[in-house]
Protein backbone atom coordinates (compact mmCIF):
# COMPACT_ATOMS: atom_id res chain seq x y z
CA UNK A 1 0.00 0.00 0.00
CA UNK A 2 1.35 3.43 -0.93
CA UNK A 3 0.50 6.28 1.38
CA UNK A 4 0.60 10.04 0.92
CA UNK A 5 0.65 12.34 3.96
CA UNK A 6 -1.12 15.71 3.73
CA UNK A 7 -0.53 18.45 6.28
CA UNK A 8 -2.68 21.60 5.81
CA UNK A 9 -2.32 24.84 7.77
CA UNK A 10 -5.04 25.39 10.38
CA UNK A 11 -7.41 27.63 8.40
CA UNK A 12 -10.72 27.04 6.66
CA UNK A 13 -9.42 28.31 3.31
CA UNK A 14 -6.57 25.76 3.50
CA UNK A 15 -8.42 22.69 4.83
CA UNK A 16 -10.91 22.69 1.94
CA UNK A 17 -8.39 22.55 -0.96
CA UNK A 18 -6.30 19.99 0.97
CA UNK A 19 -9.38 17.78 1.34
CA UNK A 20 -10.06 18.14 -2.39
CA UNK A 21 -6.45 17.20 -3.09
CA UNK A 22 -6.90 14.12 -0.89
CA UNK A 23 -9.95 13.09 -2.94
CA UNK A 24 -8.09 13.51 -6.19
CA UNK A 25 -5.10 11.49 -4.94
CA UNK A 26 -7.22 8.64 -3.62
CA UNK A 27 -9.55 8.57 -6.62
CA UNK A 28 -7.01 9.03 -9.40
CA UNK A 29 -3.93 7.30 -8.01
CA UNK A 30 -5.50 4.78 -5.65
CA UNK A 31 -3.11 5.68 -2.82
CA UNK A 32 -4.12 5.80 0.81
CA UNK A 33 -4.09 9.38 2.12
CA UNK A 34 -3.55 10.42 5.72
CA UNK A 35 -4.41 14.03 6.58
CA UNK A 36 -2.74 15.27 9.73
CA UNK A 37 -3.85 18.15 11.92
CA UNK A 38 -4.91 19.36 15.36
CA UNK A 39 -8.07 17.84 16.93
CA UNK A 40 -10.61 20.53 16.10
CA UNK A 41 -9.34 20.91 12.53
CA UNK A 42 -9.63 17.15 12.15
CA UNK A 43 -13.29 17.55 13.18
CA UNK A 44 -13.73 20.15 10.42
CA UNK A 45 -12.04 17.84 7.93
CA UNK A 46 -14.32 14.98 9.03
CA UNK A 47 -17.34 17.12 8.16
CA UNK A 48 -15.91 17.52 4.63
CA UNK A 49 -15.24 13.81 4.19
CA UNK A 50 -17.94 11.63 2.57
CA UNK A 51 -18.86 8.75 4.89
CA UNK A 52 -18.16 6.31 2.03
CA UNK A 53 -14.48 7.21 1.80
CA UNK A 54 -12.24 4.37 3.04
CA UNK A 55 -8.92 5.51 1.65
CA UNK A 56 -8.71 8.96 3.27
CA UNK A 57 -7.71 8.73 6.91
CA UNK A 58 -7.64 11.58 9.41
CA UNK A 59 -5.01 11.68 12.11
CA UNK A 60 -5.18 14.07 14.98
CA UNK A 61 -2.02 15.27 16.74
CA UNK A 62 -2.24 16.51 20.35
CA UNK A 63 -2.50 20.29 20.58
CA UNK A 64 -3.48 22.56 23.41
CA UNK A 65 -4.03 26.23 22.43
CA UNK A 66 -3.39 27.48 25.96
CA UNK A 67 0.18 26.05 25.83
CA UNK A 68 0.84 28.70 23.17
CA UNK A 69 -0.93 31.65 24.78
CA UNK A 70 -3.87 31.17 22.45
CA UNK A 71 -7.40 31.40 23.86
CA UNK A 72 -9.28 28.10 24.31
CA UNK A 73 -10.80 26.69 21.08
CA UNK A 74 -8.34 28.74 18.98
CA UNK A 75 -7.07 26.05 16.67
CA UNK A 76 -8.01 27.65 13.37
CA UNK A 77 -7.65 31.17 11.95
CA UNK A 78 -11.42 31.70 11.90
CA UNK A 79 -11.71 30.97 15.64
CA UNK A 80 -8.93 33.40 16.59
CA UNK A 81 -10.10 36.52 18.41
CA UNK A 82 -7.98 38.70 16.14
CA UNK A 83 -5.76 38.33 13.04
CA UNK A 84 -2.89 39.42 15.33
CA UNK A 85 -2.90 35.86 16.67
CA UNK A 86 -2.24 34.29 13.26
CA UNK A 87 1.51 34.40 13.73
CA UNK A 88 1.19 32.69 17.12
CA UNK A 89 -0.94 29.97 15.55
CA UNK A 90 1.58 29.65 12.73
CA UNK A 91 4.46 29.19 15.14
CA UNK A 92 2.52 26.91 17.45
CA UNK A 93 2.25 24.34 14.64
CA UNK A 94 5.93 23.49 15.29
CA UNK A 95 4.94 21.94 18.61
CA UNK A 96 3.39 19.17 16.49
CA UNK A 97 6.80 18.13 15.18
CA UNK A 98 7.59 15.27 17.66
CA UNK A 99 4.05 13.90 17.32
CA UNK A 100 4.31 14.10 13.54
CA UNK A 101 7.63 12.21 13.55
CA UNK A 102 6.11 9.53 15.79
CA UNK A 103 3.09 9.19 13.50
CA UNK A 104 5.31 8.80 10.42
CA UNK A 105 7.31 6.13 12.16
CA UNK A 106 4.14 4.24 13.25
CA UNK A 107 2.69 4.41 9.74
CA UNK A 108 5.96 3.24 8.19
CA UNK A 109 6.02 0.24 10.53
CA UNK A 110 2.42 -0.73 9.87
CA UNK A 111 2.70 -0.20 6.07
CA UNK A 112 6.09 -1.94 5.94
CA UNK A 113 7.57 1.04 4.04
CA UNK A 114 7.76 4.81 4.44
CA UNK A 115 5.09 7.06 2.93
CA UNK A 116 5.42 7.93 -0.75
CA UNK A 117 5.59 11.63 0.03
CA UNK A 118 4.55 14.42 2.36
CA UNK A 119 2.53 17.28 0.85
CA UNK A 120 2.45 20.15 3.33
CA UNK A 121 1.11 23.66 3.40
CA UNK A 122 3.60 26.46 2.79
CA UNK A 123 2.75 27.64 6.33
CA UNK A 124 3.89 24.34 7.88
CA UNK A 125 7.04 24.19 5.79
CA UNK A 126 9.04 23.05 8.84
CA UNK A 127 7.86 19.59 7.74
CA UNK A 128 10.55 19.77 5.04
CA UNK A 129 13.17 19.21 7.76
CA UNK A 130 11.30 16.15 9.03
CA UNK A 131 11.00 14.75 5.49
CA UNK A 132 14.69 15.34 4.81
CA UNK A 133 15.74 13.56 8.02
CA UNK A 134 13.56 10.57 7.18
CA UNK A 135 14.41 10.48 3.45
CA UNK A 136 10.79 11.11 2.38
CA UNK A 137 9.94 13.13 -0.73
CA UNK A 138 8.39 16.50 0.22
CA UNK A 139 6.24 18.97 -1.70
CA UNK A 140 4.71 22.21 -0.52
CA UNK A 141 1.16 22.96 -1.60
CA UNK A 142 0.18 26.59 -1.86
CA UNK A 143 -3.58 26.98 -1.54
CA UNK A 144 -3.16 30.53 -2.90
CA UNK A 145 -2.78 31.44 -6.56
CA UNK A 146 0.43 31.55 -8.62
CA UNK A 147 0.68 35.34 -8.78
CA UNK A 148 -0.38 35.76 -5.15
CA UNK A 149 2.17 33.26 -3.86
CA UNK A 150 4.99 34.54 -6.07
CA UNK A 151 4.36 38.19 -5.16
CA UNK A 152 4.08 37.35 -1.47
CA UNK A 153 7.34 35.33 -1.50
CA UNK A 154 9.20 37.96 -3.50
CA UNK A 155 8.06 40.89 -1.34
CA UNK A 156 9.09 39.13 1.87
CA UNK A 157 12.42 38.02 0.43
CA UNK A 158 13.46 41.17 -1.45
CA UNK A 159 11.40 44.09 -0.01
CA UNK A 160 11.43 45.98 -3.34
CA UNK A 161 9.12 48.63 -1.86
CA UNK A 162 11.94 49.74 0.47
CA UNK A 163 14.39 50.25 -2.38
CA UNK A 164 12.60 53.10 -4.10
CA UNK A 165 10.93 56.34 -3.00
CA UNK A 166 8.30 55.89 -5.76
CA UNK A 167 4.82 54.76 -4.91
CA UNK A 168 4.96 51.99 -7.53
CA UNK A 169 7.73 49.41 -7.91
CA UNK A 170 8.66 46.29 -9.85
CA UNK A 171 8.79 42.89 -8.16
CA UNK A 172 11.82 40.56 -8.56
CA UNK A 173 10.89 37.41 -10.46
CA UNK A 174 8.10 39.13 -12.43
CA UNK A 175 8.44 40.71 -15.89
CA UNK A 176 9.37 44.44 -15.98
CA UNK A 177 5.83 45.61 -16.72
CA UNK A 178 4.46 44.05 -13.53
CA UNK A 179 4.26 46.80 -10.92
CA UNK A 180 2.69 47.02 -7.50
CA UNK A 181 1.66 50.04 -5.51
CA UNK A 182 2.49 50.67 -1.85
CA UNK A 183 -1.20 50.41 -1.03
CA UNK A 184 -1.00 46.75 -2.14
CA UNK A 185 1.33 45.72 0.67
CA UNK A 186 -0.10 44.04 3.74
CA UNK A 187 0.16 45.74 7.12
CA UNK A 188 2.52 43.10 8.56
CA UNK A 189 4.95 43.43 5.67
CA UNK A 190 4.82 47.23 5.78
CA UNK A 191 5.46 47.20 9.52
CA UNK A 192 8.50 44.93 9.20
CA UNK A 193 10.42 47.53 7.14
CA UNK A 194 12.74 44.78 5.88
CA UNK A 195 14.17 43.99 9.32
CA UNK A 196 14.05 40.52 10.81
CA UNK A 197 11.85 41.34 13.79
CA UNK A 198 10.00 38.42 15.34
CA UNK A 199 7.06 38.43 12.93
CA UNK A 200 9.09 39.00 9.77
CA UNK A 201 11.57 36.34 10.81
CA UNK A 202 8.79 33.75 11.04
CA UNK A 203 7.27 34.62 7.68
CA UNK A 204 10.67 34.63 5.95
CA UNK A 205 11.59 31.37 7.64
CA UNK A 206 8.51 29.59 6.24
CA UNK A 207 9.16 30.98 2.80
CA UNK A 208 12.81 29.89 2.88
CA UNK A 209 11.91 26.44 4.22
CA UNK A 210 9.30 26.08 1.45
CA UNK A 211 12.03 26.79 -1.06
CA UNK A 212 14.02 23.85 0.36
CA UNK A 213 11.20 21.46 -0.56
CA UNK A 214 11.51 19.12 -3.55
CA UNK A 215 8.51 20.58 -5.40
CA UNK A 216 5.54 22.89 -5.24
CA UNK A 217 1.89 22.30 -6.10
CA UNK A 218 -0.31 25.33 -6.67
CA UNK A 219 -4.10 25.55 -6.57
CA UNK A 220 -4.40 27.30 -9.92
CA UNK A 221 -4.74 26.69 -13.65
CA UNK A 222 -1.67 27.25 -15.80
CA UNK A 223 -3.53 28.80 -18.75
CA UNK A 224 -5.60 31.10 -16.52
CA UNK A 225 -2.62 32.35 -14.51
CA UNK A 226 0.27 31.92 -16.95
CA UNK A 227 2.21 34.95 -15.70
CA UNK A 228 1.77 34.04 -12.04
CA UNK A 229 2.81 30.40 -12.40
CA UNK A 230 5.87 31.42 -14.41
CA UNK A 231 6.84 33.98 -11.76
CA UNK A 232 6.33 31.40 -9.04
CA UNK A 233 8.83 29.08 -10.74
CA UNK A 234 11.38 31.91 -10.92
CA UNK A 235 10.82 33.24 -7.39
CA UNK A 236 10.70 29.87 -5.60
CA UNK A 237 13.33 28.13 -7.73
CA UNK A 238 11.16 24.99 -7.49
CA UNK A 239 9.43 22.88 -10.09
CA UNK A 240 5.80 24.04 -9.84
CA UNK A 241 2.76 22.04 -10.89
CA UNK A 242 -0.55 23.92 -11.31
CA UNK A 243 -3.13 21.35 -10.19
CA UNK A 244 -6.25 23.44 -9.60
CA UNK A 245 -8.90 24.45 -9.18
CA UNK A 246 -9.30 22.13 -6.20
CA UNK A 247 -12.81 23.07 -5.12
CA UNK A 248 -15.62 21.36 -3.35
CA UNK A 249 -18.85 20.99 -5.31
CA UNK A 250 -22.23 22.32 -4.08
CA UNK A 251 -24.16 20.16 -1.61
CA UNK A 252 -27.85 19.37 -2.21
CA UNK A 253 -29.99 22.13 -0.69
CA UNK A 254 -31.89 19.52 1.35
CA UNK A 255 -28.67 18.74 3.29
CA UNK A 256 -28.15 22.38 4.38
CA UNK A 257 -29.21 23.81 7.74
CA UNK A 258 -32.46 25.74 8.12
CA UNK A 259 -31.02 29.27 7.57
CA UNK A 260 -28.95 28.22 4.58
CA UNK A 261 -31.96 26.50 3.01
CA UNK A 262 -34.05 29.64 3.54
CA UNK A 263 -31.36 31.71 1.82
CA UNK A 264 -31.24 29.34 -1.17
CA UNK A 265 -35.04 29.30 -1.42
CA UNK A 266 -35.07 33.11 -1.46
CA UNK A 267 -32.51 33.02 -4.27
CA UNK A 268 -34.76 30.63 -6.21
CA UNK A 269 -37.35 33.41 -6.27
CA UNK A 270 -34.94 35.90 -7.91
CA UNK A 271 -34.24 36.48 -11.59
CA UNK A 272 -31.14 35.07 -13.27
CA UNK A 273 -28.01 37.15 -12.62
CA UNK A 274 -29.85 39.68 -10.40
CA UNK A 275 -28.25 39.12 -6.97
CA UNK A 276 -24.98 40.50 -5.57
CA UNK A 277 -23.34 38.11 -3.11
CA UNK A 278 -21.21 39.88 -0.47
CA UNK A 279 -18.75 38.02 1.77
CA UNK A 280 -15.20 38.39 3.06
CA UNK A 281 -14.00 34.85 3.60
CA UNK A 282 -13.34 33.11 6.87
CA UNK A 283 -11.07 35.52 8.70
CA UNK A 284 -11.45 39.11 7.50
CA UNK A 285 -13.77 41.52 9.27
CA UNK A 286 -14.65 45.10 8.35
CA UNK A 287 -14.79 48.13 10.63
CA UNK A 288 -18.09 49.58 11.83
CA UNK A 289 -17.79 52.55 9.45
CA UNK A 290 -16.93 50.34 6.45
CA UNK A 291 -19.96 48.24 7.32
CA UNK A 292 -22.20 51.30 7.36
CA UNK A 293 -20.94 52.51 3.96
CA UNK A 294 -21.33 49.04 2.50
CA UNK A 295 -24.94 48.88 3.74
CA UNK A 296 -25.65 52.32 2.26
CA UNK A 297 -24.03 51.32 -1.01
CA UNK A 298 -26.05 48.12 -1.31
CA UNK A 299 -29.21 50.07 -0.56
CA UNK A 300 -28.36 52.78 -3.13
CA UNK A 301 -27.44 50.19 -5.79
CA UNK A 302 -31.08 49.12 -5.98
CA UNK A 303 -29.95 45.49 -6.50
CA UNK A 304 -30.92 42.35 -4.65
CA UNK A 305 -28.22 40.98 -2.39
CA UNK A 306 -27.10 38.23 -0.02
CA UNK A 307 -24.67 39.68 2.52
CA UNK A 308 -22.74 37.63 5.08
CA UNK A 309 -22.44 39.89 8.13
CA UNK A 310 -20.08 39.27 11.05
CA UNK A 311 -19.25 41.40 14.08
CA UNK A 312 -17.22 44.43 12.95
CA UNK A 313 -13.63 44.91 14.14
CA UNK A 314 -13.60 45.76 17.84
CA UNK A 315 -16.55 43.51 18.69
CA UNK A 316 -16.14 39.97 20.00
CA UNK A 317 -16.50 37.68 16.93
CA UNK A 318 -18.50 35.21 19.01
CA UNK A 319 -21.02 37.73 20.29
CA UNK A 320 -24.66 37.66 19.31
CA UNK A 321 -25.74 39.43 16.11
CA UNK A 322 -26.54 43.08 16.87
CA UNK A 323 -28.23 44.56 13.80
CA UNK A 324 -29.19 47.77 15.59
CA UNK A 325 -25.55 48.54 16.45
CA UNK A 326 -23.80 47.25 13.35
CA UNK A 327 -26.16 48.24 10.52
CA UNK A 328 -27.77 51.61 9.65
CA UNK A 329 -31.06 52.22 11.44
CA UNK A 330 -33.97 50.30 9.90
CA UNK A 331 -31.71 48.70 7.25
CA UNK A 332 -33.00 45.15 7.57
CA UNK A 333 -36.62 46.29 7.63
CA UNK A 334 -36.20 48.49 4.52
CA UNK A 335 -34.32 45.72 2.70
CA UNK A 336 -36.60 42.85 3.67
CA UNK A 337 -37.82 42.36 0.10
CA UNK A 338 -34.49 43.02 -1.51
CA UNK A 339 -31.87 41.23 0.46
CA UNK A 340 -30.84 38.51 2.87
CA UNK A 341 -28.49 39.36 5.71
CA UNK A 342 -26.81 36.09 6.61
CA UNK A 343 -25.57 35.92 10.17
CA UNK A 344 -22.00 34.68 10.36
CA UNK A 345 -21.59 31.89 7.78
CA UNK A 346 -23.23 31.26 4.41
CA UNK A 347 -23.25 28.25 2.07
CA UNK A 348 -20.89 30.07 -0.29
CA UNK A 349 -20.24 27.33 -2.83
CA UNK A 350 -23.98 26.69 -3.17
CA UNK A 351 -24.69 30.43 -3.48
CA UNK A 352 -22.05 31.05 -6.14
CA UNK A 353 -23.32 28.18 -8.25
CA UNK A 354 -26.90 29.52 -8.11
CA UNK A 355 -28.13 31.08 -11.37
CA UNK A 356 -29.49 34.19 -9.61
CA UNK A 357 -25.99 35.44 -8.67
CA UNK A 358 -24.72 38.20 -10.97
CA UNK A 359 -21.62 39.38 -9.09
CA UNK A 360 -19.55 38.64 -5.98
CA UNK A 361 -18.37 41.51 -3.79
CA UNK A 362 -15.35 39.80 -2.25
CA UNK A 363 -12.12 40.33 -0.33
CA UNK A 364 -10.51 38.26 -3.12
CA UNK A 365 -9.25 35.37 -0.95
CA UNK A 366 -8.03 32.79 -3.44
CA UNK A 367 -10.71 30.18 -2.69
CA UNK A 368 -13.40 32.80 -3.18
CA UNK A 369 -11.81 33.82 -6.48
CA UNK A 370 -11.76 30.23 -7.73
CA UNK A 371 -15.29 29.53 -6.52
CA UNK A 372 -16.59 32.67 -8.24
CA UNK A 373 -14.80 32.37 -11.56
CA UNK A 374 -15.37 28.62 -11.91
CA UNK A 375 -19.08 29.53 -11.84
CA UNK A 376 -18.59 32.38 -14.35
CA UNK A 377 -19.39 35.05 -11.73
CA UNK A 378 -17.48 38.38 -12.12
CA UNK A 379 -16.06 40.05 -9.01
CA UNK A 380 -16.28 43.40 -7.23
CA UNK A 381 -12.89 43.46 -5.53
CA UNK A 382 -12.28 44.72 -2.03
CA UNK A 383 -8.87 43.22 -1.17
CA UNK A 384 -8.00 43.67 2.50
CA UNK A 385 -4.60 42.06 3.03
CA UNK A 386 -2.10 39.29 2.28
CA UNK A 387 -2.26 37.89 -1.28
CA UNK A 388 -5.72 39.40 -1.86
CA UNK A 389 -4.30 42.52 -3.62
CA UNK A 390 -2.44 40.36 -6.13
CA UNK A 391 -5.45 38.11 -6.73
CA UNK A 392 -7.49 41.23 -7.49
CA UNK A 393 -4.74 42.51 -9.80
CA UNK A 394 -4.80 39.27 -11.81
CA UNK A 395 -8.58 39.51 -12.12
CA UNK A 396 -8.56 43.18 -13.14
CA UNK A 397 -5.52 43.36 -15.41
CA UNK A 398 -5.08 39.88 -16.85
CA UNK A 399 -8.53 38.38 -16.86
CA UNK A 400 -10.75 41.48 -17.11
CA UNK A 401 -13.33 39.99 -14.75
CA UNK A 402 -13.19 42.40 -11.81
CA UNK A 403 -13.50 46.06 -10.80
CA UNK A 404 -12.04 47.13 -7.46
CA UNK A 405 -13.75 49.44 -4.99
CA UNK A 406 -11.92 52.70 -4.27
CA UNK A 407 -10.28 52.70 -0.84
CA UNK A 408 -8.89 55.57 1.18
CA UNK A 409 -5.54 55.59 3.00
CA UNK A 410 -7.12 53.99 6.06
CA UNK A 411 -9.11 51.50 3.98
CA UNK A 412 -12.28 53.59 4.10
CA UNK A 413 -14.87 53.04 1.37
CA UNK A 414 -17.73 55.17 0.14
CA UNK A 415 -21.34 54.01 -0.23
CA UNK A 416 -21.75 55.92 -3.51
CA UNK A 417 -18.73 54.15 -4.99
CA UNK A 418 -20.06 50.76 -3.83
CA UNK A 419 -23.38 51.44 -5.61
CA UNK A 420 -21.56 52.61 -8.77
CA UNK A 421 -19.21 49.60 -8.97
CA UNK A 422 -22.01 47.14 -8.24
CA UNK A 423 -23.85 48.63 -11.24
CA UNK A 424 -20.77 48.50 -13.49
CA UNK A 425 -20.09 44.83 -12.75
CA UNK A 426 -23.71 43.67 -12.70
CA UNK A 427 -24.38 45.35 -16.05
CA UNK A 428 -20.97 44.55 -17.56
CA UNK A 429 -21.91 42.05 -20.26
CA UNK A 430 -18.36 41.77 -21.53
CA UNK A 431 -17.01 41.14 -18.04
CA UNK A 432 -19.60 38.41 -17.50
CA UNK A 433 -18.67 36.84 -20.84
CA UNK A 434 -15.00 36.76 -19.83
CA UNK A 435 -15.82 35.28 -16.42
CA UNK A 436 -17.79 32.51 -18.12
CA UNK A 437 -14.83 31.90 -20.43
CA UNK A 438 -12.44 31.60 -17.45
CA UNK A 439 -14.92 29.20 -15.82
CA UNK A 440 -14.86 27.02 -18.94
CA UNK A 441 -11.03 26.93 -18.87
CA UNK A 442 -11.05 26.03 -15.18
CA UNK A 443 -13.41 23.12 -15.64
CA UNK A 444 -11.51 21.92 -18.73
CA UNK A 445 -8.24 21.91 -16.74
CA UNK A 446 -9.67 19.30 -14.37
CA UNK A 447 -11.55 17.34 -17.03
CA UNK A 448 -10.88 14.90 -19.85
CA UNK A 449 -8.74 11.80 -19.70
CA UNK A 450 -11.66 9.42 -20.27
CA UNK A 451 -11.68 7.08 -23.29
CA UNK A 452 -8.49 8.44 -24.83
CA UNK A 453 -9.64 12.06 -24.53
CA UNK A 454 -6.84 14.55 -23.81
CA UNK A 455 -6.48 15.36 -20.11
CA UNK A 456 -6.92 18.93 -18.93
CA UNK A 457 -3.71 20.77 -18.01
CA UNK A 458 -4.17 20.40 -14.25
CA UNK A 459 -4.81 16.66 -14.42
CA UNK A 460 -1.80 16.28 -16.67
CA UNK A 461 0.33 18.24 -14.17
CA UNK A 462 -1.03 16.18 -11.29
CA UNK A 463 -0.15 12.87 -13.03
CA UNK A 464 3.26 14.19 -14.00
CA UNK A 465 4.00 15.22 -10.41
CA UNK A 466 3.18 11.74 -9.12
CA UNK A 467 5.21 10.08 -11.90
CA UNK A 468 8.22 12.02 -10.59
CA UNK A 469 7.42 11.12 -6.98
CA UNK A 470 7.12 7.43 -7.89
CA UNK A 471 10.45 7.57 -9.70
CA UNK A 472 12.06 8.99 -6.55
CA UNK A 473 10.41 6.29 -4.41
CA UNK A 474 11.38 3.26 -6.48
C1 LIG B 1 -7.19 32.95 3.51
C2 LIG B 1 -6.59 34.32 3.18
O1 LIG B 1 -7.26 35.36 3.85
C3 LIG B 1 -6.60 34.58 1.71
O2 LIG B 1 -5.91 35.78 1.44
C4 LIG B 1 -5.93 33.47 0.96
O3 LIG B 1 -6.01 33.72 -0.42
C5 LIG B 1 -6.54 32.14 1.33
O4 LIG B 1 -6.51 31.96 2.73
P1 LIG B 1 -9.94 33.33 3.59
O5 LIG B 1 -9.80 34.74 3.97
O6 LIG B 1 -10.62 32.45 4.48
O7 LIG B 1 -8.51 32.74 3.16
O8 LIG B 1 -10.73 33.39 2.19
P2 LIG B 1 -10.95 32.38 1.02
O9 LIG B 1 -9.68 31.94 0.40
O10 LIG B 1 -11.88 33.04 0.13
O11 LIG B 1 -11.60 31.08 1.70
C6 LIG B 1 -12.78 31.09 2.41
C7 LIG B 1 -13.47 29.74 2.28
O12 LIG B 1 -14.51 29.68 3.25
C8 LIG B 1 -14.10 29.56 0.92
O13 LIG B 1 -13.96 28.22 0.51
C9 LIG B 1 -15.59 29.87 1.16
O14 LIG B 1 -16.47 29.16 0.32
C10 LIG B 1 -15.77 29.47 2.60
N1 LIG B 1 -16.80 30.33 3.23
C11 LIG B 1 -16.49 31.58 3.65
C12 LIG B 1 -18.09 29.84 3.35
O15 LIG B 1 -18.38 28.70 2.94
N2 LIG B 1 -19.02 30.63 3.94
C13 LIG B 1 -18.76 31.88 4.40
O16 LIG B 1 -19.67 32.53 4.93
C14 LIG B 1 -17.45 32.37 4.25
UniProtKB/TrEMBL annotation:
> Mind listing the UniProt keywords for this protein, alphabetically?
Glycosyltransferase, Transferase
Superkingdom of source:
Eukaryota
One molecular function GO term is:
UDP-glucosyltransferase activity
- The enzyme class is transferase
Entry's CDD domains?
GT1_Gtf-like (cd03784)
Enzyme Commission code(s) on record: 2.4.1.-
| Occurrences of domain Glycosyltransferase N-terminal (ranges) | 4-135
Work out whether the entry's keyword set contains Coiled coil: no
Keyword Glycosyltransferase recorded: yes
Q: Which family does it belong to?
A: Belongs to the UDP-glycosyltransferase family.
**Protein name per the record:** Glycosyltransferase
